[in-house]
Amino acid sequence: MKTFLLTLVLAGPLLFTESHAQQINRDGVTVPTLEINLYARAMNGSMFLADGILQNFNNNFSAAVDNMDVRKFMNATDNLAIKNGNYNLIVERRPNICTSDTLLLMLTGTRVAPYRFEIDPSVLNYPNIKSVLIDKYLKTETPVSLTAVTSVSFDITTDPLSRVANRFMIVYRMQDPVRFTALTVVRNKDKTINAVFKTENENNVNSYSIERSIDGIVFETVASQMPTANNFGNPYYNFTDAQASLEAPWYRIRANSISGAAIYSVAVRANKAVEETAVTLTVFPNPVSGGNINIGFTGQLFGLYKVQVVNSKAQVVYAETINVQTDYMKKQIIVAGLTTGIYRLFITDVNGKKIIKTIIAE
Question: N or C: which end of the chain has fewer CB within 10 A?
Answer without folding.
Answer: N
